[in-house]
Fold Acetyl-CoA C-acetyltransferase.
Amino acid sequence: MPEAYICAAVRTAGGRRGGKVAGWHPVDLAAASLNAILDRSGVDPNAIEDVIMGCVGQTKEQGLHVGRNAVLASRLPQHVPAVSIDRQCGSSQQSIQFAAQAVMSGTQDVVIAAGVESMTRVPMGSTGSFTPEFQPNSAKSPGLDEKFPGIAFTQFAGAEMIAQKHGFSREMLDEYSLRSHKRAAAAADAGAFDQEIVPIEVPDGDGGTMMHTRDEGIRAEASMEGLAGLKTLQEGGVITAGNASQICDGSSAVLVASEAAVKKYGLTPIARIHHMSVTGGDPVIMLEEPLFATEKALKRAGMKIDDIDLYEVNEAFAPVPMAWLKHLGADPEKINVNGGAIALGHPLGASGTKLMATLVHALKARGKKYGLQTMCEGGGLANVTIIEAL
């Protein structure tokens, strides 16, 4: 079967809700990452055959086909098509897998997988208004309610359920979260993100502008005392804003190409797609599926967890990567080595290609070979992608 290669992987530095990136329209924010792919790879813009744009909140400023609008706002020719997809938090990880599938099937040779989310301008849960005359006025249909009576599908409840199931205390979650901030701060200070971050112009707070190159959510001064002082999201629970991912504005993109395209356009592959899969599980506990998806992916790839050099497991909530580590017996020194979404932010539809950019560059910096990326997704879904750094 033909191979699919990653030839560039970029992301913007995350912006906090209402922070430095809030002034960027999400279409232009996405276009910034598309343009950076052209700059970093040197690919002929006319060679791009498709753009697959992940985005969860496809309404308001992210509505009316955000992927196509991003292409039109970028330096890509207008003949380049696009599609906007939603697999919840795994949207742009699915973009990578769709792009790789297109290349491996021989259908296309050069595809950009990308993602964007401005959680400031299109808040989480922005689905537009429901039609008043129809009841129930909810995204949960009568058919769903018949199968899952009285159950509200919420990731917050799922995170609490995982913590309880796996025996994680509030202190354990906060310890994990503190480590995420410390690792992210150390990585940023050491320039570990320099190769992946796309500088964008933002206000400097003094009437001028500056280039935004550092993730705004990193808290180098974070402490256990500070985390312990935060209120839990539900009474008697263990989840707080401190041990959950940060609301974030950002975009990201990955260039996927065939071997023929690599030769034709003089591209330099930085990784090869080794395996990709997606699974569905319990929609109630919801966020636990990466545990079982990873088991299935490793078996299908003929690998063991110890064969993987680095893991990127999205930190939607601290219990998710913690349960993943426990279930798989994985090495905690290999997970999210540059910090995760608790410190760096989780820009929903952009997180898949964002994590891939971090994973590829972290493998390269350490001279390591195999990386695995997975993330929990609404509805009890999980994507798993395994890459080989080149």
The CA atoms of residues 185 and 364 lie 20 Å apart.
